[in-house]
What does this fold into?
Amino acid sequence: MMNNKLAVILVLLFAVLMSLPWLVPHMGWVALFAFVPLLCLDRLADFARPKRFFLWYFAAFLLWNAATTFWVCNATVGGGIAAMVVNASIMSVIWLLFRLSKKKFSGIVPYIFLAVLWIAWERTFFNTQISWPWLTLGNAFARTTTLVQWYEVTGVLGGSLWIWGVNLGLFALMVNLSNGNFASWNLRCRIALPLLLGLFILVPAVGSELRYSTYTEDNCGTVNVVVGQTNFDPYQKYTSVTQTRQNAALLEQFAKGMENNSSASTLLIAPESFTADVCINDVNSGPSVQTFLSFLENYPGSEMLIGASTYEMFYRNSAPSPLARSFGPGRWYETHNSALLLSNTREPQIYHKSKLVVGTELMPFPRILAPIDDALGGVLARCVPQKEISVMHLQDNTPFGCAICYESVYGDFCTGYARKGAQFLAVITNDGWWGDTPGYRQHFSYSRLRAIELRRDIARSANTGISAIINQRGDVVEETGWWVPDYISSSVNCSQKITPFARWGDVTGRVCSLAALLLLALLLCRFLIRKG
It folds into this structure.
């Protein structure tokens, strides 16, 4: 019979340990043994064979999701609850397949299957229409970046593999110690297992520390930047605060940032969705754009990167896409979450956000849902993403990438900026929807991982904080506080080097996905053969 009290303790211990890296700075290392309680619970179930054991690990994963991402409910209660329940359910299905594999596989094979299947799911979750990869295991080190400087080779899924490898190694050592096998091994085996486990823990950690301490910033030039943090409550920004007032507050910050700036050219960076009066068909005619261009006349050679909710008009008989809305016979419009690079010497450059947030921006399966939405009067979000990543170019032709909000969570996606020549990154976002919760701190810390993976400096502008300059080691060079109007006047280094991760992409994820498919196919064959 299952010891329910012990099971509750193990579930709670797992939830606490696995939540710490997302909630407390410098605690990423805890993830290296956080799965051990859940693995112990699974071993207890092997002996007790309880009914409905699925509920135990569903409870464990739900507690982990709730403890780390509860803040989503501040913006949307239904969406937050759905994200937590669905994410926990998928994690539980992976664990269920692991338990099923024990019936057909022996030894360490089921545990290998568990690890590669989990990582394969994480990789898949980066590329699905409905995507929520916030709790990718490798993100546990987002505030312990000195341990994962090797993300420049593997990306975050290398961290997921490290976490699984250490957890499974520790669990294997515990099992062999508890059942007496360890004492019966010969001396070489008793030395080998702890030694290999120790090396698997220490080599990545020590190697990372050495890489961190010896890394020298690549610098093929510098770009002066002024980062604005306007600090308008997002729930009032679009309703009770006029765009004129917002523009004046932003330009006041930019003017202060330029006071001690002797550079002939500076990139001024504003947050995501700062203005909503921009029509793609004629960008320069928008009132806000005209105000910004007038301001730039005072600073010849400088440019302005602005987040904007834009729209594009179409005059044709049929809709240009399933996401288009009609505003009369033969008239359509599409909406975008965009970044605009403005200058007085050339036409605006435009980038549309590609990775959209489900519910507030993304309509999945638009050919099915769009007609239903039309019948309801158009209540669902319909942002149109850019199909392919692109970079922008400053007046001196320096290329850079601009990740808009949620895009900065996707490491493999961001490699596209580096491959297309981006020499630094800008991240523009609006994190105030969640209030003063771990959400905005987690989102900020993920930019540090992107800096390491690509070895690119990052200038981050957030409407309510945290705005920052992040260097190529993932260090925060300068940052603003939360919920205060502020600015940063600084510079970023440019780099032309391409990291192995940027060059080859997510090799760890691809290898684990292949291994998971092969083992899943083998498991299915063994079940079918028995039935036959």
